[in-house]
Specification:
This protein is an alpha+beta fold and about 300 residues long. The protein is about 20% helix and about 25% strand. The chain has 6 helices and 14 strands. The chain has helices at about 20-25, 30-40, 115-120, 155-165, 235-245, 295-309; strands spanning about 1-10, 45, 60-65, 85, 90-95, 145-150, 170-175, 185, 190-195, 200-205, 210-220, 225-230, 270-280, 285-290. The strands form 3 sheets. Strands 4, 5, 6, 7, 8, 11, 12, 13 and 14 form a 9-stranded mixed beta sheet that branches. The protein has a 3-stranded antiparallel beta sheet with strand order 1-3-2.
Length: about 300
């Protein structure tokens, strides 16, 4: 069974290659898969069969006919409980627990959000990539908090456009080492791939624009609780930016440094929580906002810091 999706090219899409534009929407998987859809004739551009490298103009119409996928090898539905904050016909909003990987990959096939969604939905959703079914954005494995999932291709496309246009407001909480002196500020250092450790990111010249605003919530001894507002969405952005100003996140084994209080490890993962997200609901057009409560380990950490203040 094939499902057709119609997309109108928005202003940011003008001048982009067709295959790049469709890949960025996140609905049809990797660029190689998108290119196969185009070459197989499953994509029309203004009613004509295009080439993958066709340059787009604002207002053009793209029709994609994609066969509803089966569950890929290596990925199995699993009865993993989801902490659902909100659900309707188009959206699912959850509070992701720490330790859960979002996308399956070698070494992390089990216990992922994708496997949980495949069980929750009793199989893949029509028109959605089964490797990332409706997942518009992601959180690191050890970051907890609010995560939006689209339930159909049109909603996924609409939400993806909002993220690309920076119309989604995100708010995080992070406990960092040291007393942050300024009550508020903005970090604007560019971020790129670490030239030595390729699995890491780093502040580096020539990197992509990255902007993180912050404000102090609490200061307690040698730890500061910050509320953060990332304006861009670079990989590991908050963790890299905070480390770059000398205040790495407590428990961050990659971008932090081994530190403890009185010889005790305070938390077994980076103390970072996606507290809130706000966006325009694709169905109603209303501005909606969802907040994820703190998980138990961060509640404990906050109590410890309060007592030490």
């Amino acid at each position: 069974m094939a499902e057709s999706v119609r997309i109108t090219v928005d202003a940011p899409g003008a001048g982009r290659r067709l295959d790049h534009y469709l890949t960025a929407l996140g609905t049809w998987g990797s660029r190689s898969h998108v290119q196969k859809l185009i070459t197989s004739g499953a994509v029309d551009l203004d009613g004509q069969v295009p080439k993958a490298g066709a340059l787009l103009r604002g207002g053009q119409t793209i029709d994609v006919r994609a066969v509803s996928p089966s569950i890929p090898a290596g990925v199995e539905p699993e009865a993993i409980a989801l902490d659902v904050l909100y659900e309707d016909e188009q959206l699912l909003v959850i509070n992701k627990p720490p330790g859960m990987v979002v996308h399956p990959a070698p070494g992390n096939w089990r216990g992922t959000l994708v496997s949980a969604l495949l069980h929750y939905w009793r199989g893949p959703r029509p028109g959605l990539d089964p490797f990332r079914p409706g997942i518009v954005h992601r959180l690191d494995k050890d970051t907890s908090g609010v995560l939006i999932i689209a339930k159909d291709p049109a909603t996924l496309t609409a939400l993806g456009n909002q993220f690309r246009r920076r119309e989604v407001d995100k708010r995080y909480l992070a406990w960092v080492w040291g007393r942050v002196r300024s009550h508020s500020g903005t970090i604007t250092e560019p971020i790129g791939r670490n030239p030595i450790h390729r699995t890491r990111m780093a502040v580096r010249r020539g990197g992509r624009e990255a902007v993180t605003a912050f404000e102090v919530v609490e200061r307690c001894d040698d730890i500061t609780l910050l509320r953060l507002f990332p304006r861009t969405g670079r990989t590991h952005q908050i963790r890299v930016h905070l480390s770059s100003i000398g205040h790495p996140i407590v428990g961050d084994a990659v971008y932090g440094r081994t530190r403890s209080r009185a010889g005790k490890v305070l938390i077994a993962r980076q103390a970072l929580h996606a507290e809130q997200i706000a966006f325009c609901h694709p169905g109603t057009g209303e501005r909606v906002r969802f907040t994820a409560p703190l998980p138990a380990d961060l509640v404990t950490l906050r109590h410890r810091c309060t007592r030490a203040a």
